[in-house]
Amino acid sequence: MPDDCNILAFMAKLFPELEELWLEGTPIMIEELLQATVYFPHIRRLEIGLHTLKPKSKPLSHILKGHGQHVDRDCMPKSTLALELCVIERQEDRRAFSAEDWDFIAGFLTSHWSSISIKPSPIEDLLERTFKINEKFALHSAQRAENRCRDKESA
């Protein structure tokens, strides 16, 4: 695999029909995770590490605004995303996520995955206390369920 290659894009080329993927010990950046929904349209279970830094200092919603257009807004039934939050040394071109970023991440990921879990860890505990990330994921999941019920009633 080339050194500068996006690991998920590389895996998708090798296994386009992949339904399950565990990448333990290989944390990826947020932009790669959001692209995974495009690279693997059939994936039902993804377990992966996520670096808690983002490109640039702008909100993620501005940096990654084009990604949402490529994702089917209906989540796949019985699809599971298990995240392990990872800390890497702060880099000059990377910044920590803000509360707005976590809200964007939660909304984006819950639009695609029917179940999302964050593995308990010291960084998860810190982010939960600081940004209430589990609450954000729960809120977006509840909104998705409410919208689905409303759509069924109007159909």
From TrEMBL:
What is the top-level taxon of the source organism?
Eukaryota
Q: What is this protein called?
A: Uncharacterized protein
